[in-house]
Amino acid sequence: MTILEANNIFKVYGEFNGERETVALNNINLLINRGDFVAIMGPSGSGKTTLLNILSGIDQPTSGEVTIGGENLNEMKSDALAHFRRKQLGFVFQDFNLLDSLTVKENIMLPMILEKKNLTEMEEKIHELASLFEIKSILNKYPYHISGGQQQRTAVSRALVNEPQIIFADEPTGNLDSKSSTAIMECFERIVDKMSTTVLLVTHDVFAASYCQKVIFIRDGAVHSSISKTTNRNAFLTEIMDNLTLLGGR
Ligand SMILES: Nc1ncnc2c1ncn2[C@@H]1O[C@H](COP(=O)(O)OP(=O)(O)OP(=O)(O)O)[C@@H](O)[C@H]1O
């Protein structure tokens, strides 16, 4: 079942500070199905973050449209879009974006409080996610007292509490060591397997991308190619590196 559809997406940034206009996205078309686990890769400046921001309704395309679960993001008024994003989409960022003044548990609860869920429902959900991501023992700690990996697992739990249709992650392993990167990619694997959540991430990290089922390569704002995992993760990792070499760039 198609969950996200992007049709003829163009993004042109206007002239700024004497710089000429930039065509950041040049006719992108994408179909993402429920339960897909997809990485977007490409050289620096190829348009990855711009694409993720447009697919997730953070930014508007210059032309083209994005639908998620059949709803056209570009036709929604800003209040409706904000509500849709809060309820239907989950976000994970490179720098975790946790609130330092709230405990791990309170950070995870926040999106449910905004959705006015009842206390029993919130407690049950937190228990389920904290068990799944092995963060039960740190629920009452503050973000500055836990490791980067634990912070990112908290951020993934927070992204999942309202059972979103799709999780968007921008460089989720960018600030993590290799052990924590493995743990977070295994978390994504688990939610795709167990909950059929759809995960779409942008990454420079070949190791992280090798956990996905599919990698879409973009260059100069356009889809260049895509590959799907057919054998094991190590073979897929080699295939991703070969494709990146062909793609060029840093
Ligand atoms: N707000 C903006 N105003 C003007 N140009 C922008 C803006 N944001 C991005 N760009 C330009 O659009 C192009 C795509 O940028 P984008 O950040 O999407 O690339 P990226 O692939 O995510 O890069 P990186 O891997 O370095 O993060 C680049 O040429 C960039 O300079």
Quick description:
By secondary structure, the chain is α/β, with parallel strands linked by helices.
Q: How is this structure best described in words?
A:
Helices cover 38% and strands 26% of the residues. The protein has helices at 48-55, 78-88, 104-114, 119-132, 148-160, 178-195, 206-209, 233-247, and strands at 2-13, 22-33, 37-41, 63-68, 71-72, 89-93, 166-170, 198-202, 214-219, 222-228. It has a single domain (37-58, 77-247), classed as P-loop containing nucleotide triphosphate hydrolases (Rossmann fold, 3-Layer(aba) Sandwich), CATH 3.40.50. It is α/β, with parallel strands linked by helices. Strand 1 (2-13) and strand 2 form a beta hairpin. The radius of gyration is 18 Å and the shape is globular. Helix 3 (104-114) packs parallel to helix 5 (148-160) and helix 5 (148-160) runs parallel beside helix 6 (178-195). A six-stranded mixed sheet has the order 6-7-8-3-9-10, with helices on both faces. It is built from eight helices and ten strands.
**CATH arch. level architecture:** 3-Layer(aba) Sandwich
CATH topology: Rossmann fold
Secondary structure tally, helices? 8
Q: Given the helix and strand composition, which structural class is it? A: alpha/beta
